[in-house]
Design brief:
Layout (H helix, E strand, L loop, with lengths): L6 E2 L11 E7 L7 E2 L3 E8 L2 E5 L2 E5 L4 E4 L5 E5 L6 E8 L11 H4 L6 E6 L4 H12 L3 H17 L2 E5 L4 H20 L6 H7 L4 H12 L3 H19 L4 H7 L5 H12 L3 H8 L4
Helix pairs in contact: 2-3, 4-6
């Protein structure tokens, strides 16, 4: 089997929307073998070649439709005889349904080690029609179009692609990767454990157990560690007051902050600044 060089693609939807839509017309598929933290729905209109997901190779042709789970390596490769391709791509966070529908409807697609789905080609025209409706809409109409498309890919006939690794472990790994990425982006804010658990489609206790088992640290301690590490950088390279830095990094109580800093760093914030500050 061909070896692929894996790249991390930091796919982020535009600031004004939760979704990223792309319509491509090219001679060949030219994406690298990559992964990113978003779900990815792809609908081909024309083109043929190979769909590679976690090293598993599938043949594709006109009207291919696939859904790939977050943080799963994948790519599309044109056959040499292919001279024209056209496809539609939708990327969205797996918690894009927040407050609208049950997260489990999305997470359950990947709960038993499924890393992707390949759909009946007959739905391709319908997927493309929903895609164009969504791409041309704004605000609530765009969201409404997305929910219609989501209902289609959740309920339509499809064939699962399973991870070659342990299925339960693969599912847990994706959830842990999502939790870690979410914390890295939001640790300066107050993170609600029930809300985070809802985002990954499980209860708080199970989420905590899975994360602790994979990362050897509790979620709350992981959040505190990220905050303290961020504060250390700001103390070392800036002249803001320590209290201002602490409040900006999610702390609401200075006594609690000082206690946690001392526990993690072995010194007070003032002592750390004296020893490490480079701002003159």
């Amino acid at each position: 089997m061909k070896k692929f060089s894996l790249e991390y693609e930091n796919s982020v939807p535009p600031a004004y929307t939760a979704f990223r839509t792309v319509h491509n017309k090219r001679v060949h598929f030219d994406a690298s073998y990559h992964l990113h933290p978003l779900c990815e729905l792809t609908a081909m209109e024309r083109g043929f070649g190979k769909f590679v997901v976690e090293g598993i190779v599938h043949s594709i042709d006109d009207n291919h439709v696939s859904l790939v789970a977050p943080n799963v390596p994948h790519t599309y490769i044109s056959d040499s005889e292919c001279k024209r391709t056209e496809w539609y791509l939708l990327q969205f966070p797996i918690d894009a349904f927040s407050g609208l529908v049950d997260f489990s409807s999305v997470w359950n697609l990947f709960k038993n080690g499924e890393i992707a789905y390949i759909y009946d080609p007959a739905i391709a025209p319908l997927v493309r029609r929903h895609f164009l409706k969504m791409a041309g809409a704004k605000n609530l109409r765009r969201l409404s179009a997305f929910l219609e498309l989501a209902q289609l890919f959740i309920s339509a006939d499809k064939t699962p692609v399973y991870s070659t690794s342990n299925s339960s472990s693969a599912s847990s790994d994706r959830r842990v990767a999502f939790i870690e990425n979410y914390i890295m982006q939001n640790y300066r804010d107050k993170i609600s454990m029930p809300d985070l658990a809802k985002r990954v489609g499980m209860d708080v206790a199970k989420m905590g157990r899975i994360f602790s088992k994979k990362k050897n640290i509790s979620i709350k301690r992981f959040i505190r560690r990220q905050r303290i590490l961020s504060i250390c950088k700001e103390i070392s390279f800036g002249d803001k007051s320590i209290s201002e830095i602490a409040f900006a990094n999610g702390y609401e109580n200075l006594s609690n902050f000082n206690r946690q800093f001392l526990s993690q760093m072995g010194c007070t914030p003032v002592q750390y600044r004296k020893a490490n500050n480079t701002y003159k």
